[in-house]
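Page 37, continued from 36.
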């Protein structure tokens, strides 16, 4: 356990150092504790960018990853007095401890981790980009930018298990920033109350590492962007620094979870709200455009689509893209099947319709409601109970003191209206296209929180001390919940104790010896796991799908010096 905490502590130092150096280089700013969340997010993004760009030419190897760890930590010695300031050092310890408690003796987000999260990280560590890799395992095309970040944590110091760290780190940095803002504030405003709701919502709904996957980081970034926007609207100015942070977070959220594409509506709103039309003159704008461009190029190379599996973004004449809807990696088939599943297709008593027909109209609605709809309501029950507590406390103080908080200098009503329109529109699109909560938690949660907060804009009577005590109580509950998991699993004895397993469902087994090599014409095509198992973080490339069907559809060759799974008959 000491080693796990040490790894997390070193990662925290790496991220804070890298993020601070970036900001100091671009904006010449001084270190501020309230910006630690920004430092962490920006540095995690940079690591992913380096990984993405490097993988066009090389695998993401341990040597590169070790350099990426050591150099930022080395710079700490240049600013050692800064990092030994009591408040800063305590903040670093707090973030590390939160990460440790959240991840220790936990599990990965299975089965998705074994399906494509971990296999794609392994692929990045083993190989440079493979053209058409979705033709052997279509789920690899749904991998996130976060897999690129995770691949940089497989170094000589952390070992292979380090790849589980960045997922919990982004959670801890964001939660720390939100909580620090609330604890350090000295007055209650409407903005404060709304950020309080956002923080509590994140604590209630996002607190188990085994449920994070690729979804939690995207939604946490979505809520963090709203947090930044609220502060911008409160101060009524929008600077180049704000443009940089809000743009980076939006891009980060989108490439982590492409279903969050409507997050860019917030950026459009800010540009018009503050008439910030000089953005096209800023160098950073073109750096962001370049990054999105290479991200789309990467998507084209592995799948034949700019945004896999959206058919309209695919290029039919690429040699590694299949236009045959019966083929394993065909984007149209993958899209229709995925959408049908989010709308409850597996729960249909007689699934006689095709995926495409099932998705049309509102035929799916009654079927979806009986299962997914019920699950969503069930998952929001703790949030609604929290709302009820807030209402009761407000009524108590309202009757006791007859005082209301003056929000005269806070957010303008028209700005709140635009935020509601953006989150409401996004929630509607989510509901009619991919209505599973893991895809739309940010949209739906943001809309519900904004809507609920409206009733308190002019009728807020809860005192600052009460809100802080309620926040501290909720934080303690979350810590106790995760501590209880650790205590229950404390006596476990397995190979990688106390890390989450990355090799299989069973923590006691290293699955590497269970993979089967699949050859064709004496050439190794890919690996496949035994039945009832998945690929996880073993050899790559790996697929758990029907190997004989895949072999009949693809041919392993080389194009432009890239290993390619070419389609035999398009």
């Amino acid at each position: 356990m000491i080693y796990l905490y040490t790894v997390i502590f070193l990662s925290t130092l790496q991220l804070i150092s890298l993020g601070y150096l970036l900001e100091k280089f671009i904006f010449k700013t001084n270190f501020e504790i309230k910006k630690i969340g920004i430092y962490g997010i920006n540095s995690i993004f940079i690591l992913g960018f380096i990984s993405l760009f490097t993988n066009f030419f090389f695998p993401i190897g341990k040597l590169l990853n070790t350099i990426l760890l050591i150099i930022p930590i080395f710079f700490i010695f240049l600013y050692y007095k800064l990092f030994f300031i009591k408040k800063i050092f305590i903040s670093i310890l707090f973030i590390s401890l939160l990460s440790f408690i959240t991840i220790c003796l936990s599990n990965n987000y299975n089965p998705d981790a074994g399906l494509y999260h971990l296999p794609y990280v392994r692929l990045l560590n083993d190989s440079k980009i493979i053209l058409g890799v979705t033709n052997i395992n279509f789920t690899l095309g749904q991998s996130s930018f976060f897999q690129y970040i995770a691949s940089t944590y497989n170094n000589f110091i952390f070992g292979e298990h380090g790849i589980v760290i960045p997922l919990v780190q982004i959670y801890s940095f964001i939660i720390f920033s939100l909580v620090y803002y609330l604890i350090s504030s000295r007055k209650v405003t409407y903005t404060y109350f709304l950020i309080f709701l956002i923080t509590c919502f994140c604590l209630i709904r996002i607190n188990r590492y085994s449920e994070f996957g690729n979804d939690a980081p995207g939604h946490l970034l979505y809520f963090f962007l709203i947090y930044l926007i609220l502060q911008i609207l409160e101060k009524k100015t929008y600077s180049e620094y704000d443009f940089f942070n809000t743009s980076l977070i939006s891009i980060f959220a989108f490439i982590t979870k492409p279903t969050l594409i409507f997050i860019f509506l917030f950026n459009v709103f800010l540009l018009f709200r503050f008439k910030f039309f000089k953005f096209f003159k800023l160098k950073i704008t073109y750096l962001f455009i370049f990054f999105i461009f290479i991200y789309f190029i990467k998507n084209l190379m592995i799948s034949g689509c700019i945004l896999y599996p959206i058919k309209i973004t695919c290029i039919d004449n690429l040699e590694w893209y299949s236009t045959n809807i019966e083929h394993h990696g065909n984007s149209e088939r993958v899209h229709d099947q995925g959408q049908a599943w989010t709308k409850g297709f597996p729960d249909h008593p007689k699934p006689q319709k095709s995926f495409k027909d099932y998705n049309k109209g509102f035929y799916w609605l009654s079927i979806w409601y009986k299962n997914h709809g019920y699950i969503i309501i069930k998952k929001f029950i703790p949030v609604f109970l929290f709302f009820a507590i807030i209402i009761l406390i407000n009524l108590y103080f309202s009757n006791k003191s007859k005082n209301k908080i003056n929000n005269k200098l806070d957010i303008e009503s028209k700005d709140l209206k635009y935020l509601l329109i953006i989150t409401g529109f996004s929630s509607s699109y989510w509901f009619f296209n991919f209505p599973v909560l893991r895809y739309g938690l940010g949209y739906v949660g943001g809309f519900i929180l904004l809507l609920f907060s409206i009733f308190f804009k002019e009728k807020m009577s809860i005192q600052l001390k009460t809100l802080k005590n309620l926040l501290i109580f909720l934080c303690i509950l979350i810590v106790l919940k995760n501590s209880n998991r650790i205590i229950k699993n404390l006596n476990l004895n397995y190979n990688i104790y106390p890390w989450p397993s990355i090799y299989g469902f069973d923590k006691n087994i290293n699955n590497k010896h269970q993979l089967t090599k699949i050859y064709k014409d004496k050439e190794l095509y890919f690996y496949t796991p035994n039945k009832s198992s998945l690929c996880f973080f073993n050899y790559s490339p790996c697929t758990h799908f029907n190997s004989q069907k895949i072999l009949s559809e693809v041919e392993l060759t080389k194009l432009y010096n890239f290993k390619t799974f070419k389609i035999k008959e398009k």
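The beta strands are 516-520, 523-528, 554-559, 562-567. Flag for discussion at group meeting. The radius of gyration is 24 Å.
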